């Protein structure tokens, strides 16, 4: 399976039959002579230079193959199949029928595995044993603390009333809706956070806006004391786990995270009805989710960097999960609690960042920080922690073997509640792609040129568990043979396409966007037109889904895609019971049209990658983006840094930067050489007539060599020692933002040095970047010379 086989080299010889098939019909006697001459030449060449390869080549030829008609346009067939049939709604209904947290929903493991098998994939599952929590019990109560004057009064009237009194018990469940069957029942997922700590704390409480690092800093500077307080923050801006991390670091004893309607496009305050009657947020909706410290290290927190297989050595998890308890809440439930802060602590208008007042959507809360000494909260959170099994499912669409390596395409299966968007819109899309490819095989006998491996991950929601453990267990195989990873998580959470990618895949993605129509009424509009009317370019990856281990730990080019929520879309009830089949099929995607579009886009991208003889990846754009980021970051350093020279070094930072710019120039040249060669080799492969016969044999080997260079390009950016303070993240160009989690930043080493005002770190990372790029920049010269030789 993945991992154990083919560890030796994987450099399977290339299939000659593709090129030949176009020729045999036109063979003339002159050609016959040339053919013999060619065979003689090849034989000499091979015997002299390539004997070991010949042996593997022979064994390869002997393998039986399905008929392979290279003239079919696989992309067009795939788009036609998906345009004429759409089963996404059926898959959605099955996947969303009941909640399936990590490790649960074994019927869906079986369903997915069977479906893969039905679509001609060799399918299997894999179990990991991960440390994780399941909710036992929770409660949140508001206590009134009698002040001394109250107590005196009480002393007169009721001698027994000086104890704190519960004045409000918050509801921690979402309203059942008669219209939406998955919101009713006794199997609903309680409100809780993945990896939250158990605890029972009673304390005064404060409001800390989004709970970002700078929110805590701002209030700290204004004199707010967080020590032993319960800190209430709203969702948004950064990954929720980091809110809890910053709260813990600030001294808070517990955290409440609620969904503020101020961040929604459709608001009840503007006259819109809430779900299920309209597009606004249902006031009882609760966003569950993980509070792992994602940007430190994802995956099982007891096995960082190592797979959670039976018998794995486990370590203290608290570097990447919180020690203080937290609970998610709805705005309706938290409102009576927040209202008690009105007029207490620091007024939002006195906070330097003026959006504190205006970004909130609760009209009866004035967004003061508190605390109010007359009130406390009791937060009780009981979580059961254990080592539990999770299940990944895989399906291998075995290719013709004409090209080495495989493409991985995946989606997670586990969800918090109904999960129609997250992740099961992606699960439906994944099955649609598999179905369409299978139909092409059935009707034409086609097999992909490269293997395609489908993956259905478990445990993504808790902390990218299934994909991370997989990446850690099979790292050697993945680094040796995986060409790219295509991720789809929330395929449909809105109608606005969102694509983030390694820049080497941008060109391919733009081309496949052009092949998908966007508006029904106007078939002239493509996904491309819509995307680029809103975006200048394809974005960069951060974290928050299963591509993280592949790109940021292993250096495998990755893509993430999906339709996200825009201003015209109904409020997306992320991680709530209302992310349901009913919501999806009545409000967000009636007819599952966007599901279908994403299947087309993903499928077309996959085929563009699996079929071309020369891998469809380009690097000049990568270099240009990197140069832009480097210019931007270096333009932001304080002038005083320029003369900095670290101990034992000679160069100033200014000199180092200018040398690095020079190296970037050489690196840029190298990428141009690479791309030019890619295009010319692909042209030769497409037009073998244009290649003199004596070069045809060499062409195959040159394509093989070029594909190896393309396949391993991104690996260059993996720095073994990893980023400062979080060594699991090893990619020097892209990483999850240390203080944001979701949002990615380019050159994280430099970015963090700037954020922390640490010149030594800035110097260190400039040196690392220079050294890594110099390796290729030097190659550019060598290769220019060697290609001169060839010409
Ligand atoms: C897919 O299956 C083929 C045929 O069994 C095998 O050679 C190949 O190694 C498999 N690929 C992966 C990634 O498991
Ligand atoms: C995993 O695959 C095996 C073999 O096909 C099967 O017997 C087993 O039931 C599968 N596991 C689950 C959880 O479905
Ligand atoms: C105080 O004690 C009296 C008599 O035991 C009881 O009726 C009353 O409910 C108590 N009040 C409070 C606020 O606990
Ligand atoms: C939480 O702690 C308080 C004492 O601080 C105790 O009275 C209460 O019973 C505890 N709650 C639970 C559910 O254990
Ligand atoms: C959590 O619940 C379990 C099972 O009901 C109970 O045994 C345990 O004492 C509870 N833990 C806390 C911290 O209250
Ligand atoms: C990059 O290529 C340009 C144009 O060919 C050339 O002028 C420049 O010197 C090259 N840079 C490096 C560092 O090789
Ligand atoms: Zn997801």
Explain this structure.
- The strands form 4 sheets. Strands 1, 2, 4, 10, 11, 12, 13, 14 and 15 form a 9-stranded mixed sheet that branches. This protein has a 4-stranded parallel sheet with strand order 5-6-7-9. Strands 3-8 form a two-stranded parallel ribbon.
- 40% of the residues lie in helices and 15% in strands.
- It is globular.
- 49% of the residues are buried.
- The two termini are 42 Å apart.
- The protein is built from 25 helices and 17 strands.
- The chain is α/β, with parallel strands linked by helices and 791 residues long.
- It binds 2-acetamido-2-deoxy-beta-D-glucopyranose (6 copies) and zinc ion.
- One 2-acetamido-2-deoxy-beta-D-glucopyranose binds next to helix 6.
- Zinc ion binds at residues 412, 422-423, 460, 489-490, 545.
- Belongs to the peptidase M28 family. M28B subfamily.
- This is Putative glutamate carboxypeptidase.
